[in-house]
Design brief:
Layout: H1 2-27, E1 36-43, E2 46-52, H2 56-63, H3 66-71, H4 77-82, E3 96-99, E4 109-111, E5 117-121, E6 123-124, H5 129-156, H6 162-183
Antiparallel strand pairs: 1-2, 3-5, 4-5
Helix pairs in contact: 1-5, 5-6
Length: 184
């Protein structure tokens, strides 16, 4: 019995890693180009995984810019804490010209006297792709955690009576749901 408990205890970090790894996969759906998955790992007693994008331009797409961004802002509280400001240069409705390339889909372009191609904008609305990815992961967490825990617990009951096994899994499922409520 003690050996079975030790095996269960040893497998829980693996279950946690599988959970966060699957959540990171879900977060990868519908995000910016160049986004990469952060592999699942443990930090202390916490399983960690996620996504990242180091291209600066996607930061502006995520949070929005200019007068347009201020009208359709990002919803993350972290944004306010980080001190993100819209229309920092006070361009307002006039907008501004920025250096660009031919690949830029903005139709308002011209080449200045130094030969730099420029495009005009009033800013960008917040696209919130990372925020929405995190929300998807939060929504899916209970289901994925339950699936991974049930996979693990089924292996613990191999060879036992099916009725007894289902009762034990049902009890564990209820405990798991209570624990989730405490975490929230």
């Amino acid at each position: 019995m003690i050996q079975r408990y030790e095996t269960k205890k040893k497998n829980m970090p693996k279950v946690a890693l599988r959970i966060v790894d699957r959540l990171a996969d879900i977060m990868m759906e519908d995000v910016y180009p160049d986004t990469e998955k952060i592999p699942a790992t443990t930090k202390g007693k916490t399983a960690v995984a996620g996504i990242r994008n180091t291209e600066e331009k996607w930061t502006y797409h995520e949070y929005g810019t200019g007068i347009i961004g201020s009208q359709i802002p990002h919803t993350a509280e972290a944004l306010a804490k980080a001190g993100w400001k819209y229309d920092v240069n006070g361009h307002g409705e006039k907008g501004w010209w920025y250096p660009t390339t031919e690949n830029d889909p903005n139709p308002y372009k011209w080449t200045d006297e130094s030969g730099t191609l420029r495009a005009w904008t009033k800013g960008l609305p917040a696209e919130r792709a990372f925020y929405e990815a995190l929300e998807r992961a939060r929504e899916m967490f209970p289901q994925i955690a339950e699936e991974e825990l049930l996979k693990e617990t089924r292996s613990w009951f191999k060879g036992l009576d099916q009725t007894y096994m289902m009762k034990c899994i049902s009890i564990q499922k209820n405990i798991y749901k209570v624990n989730l409520d405490l975490i929230r």
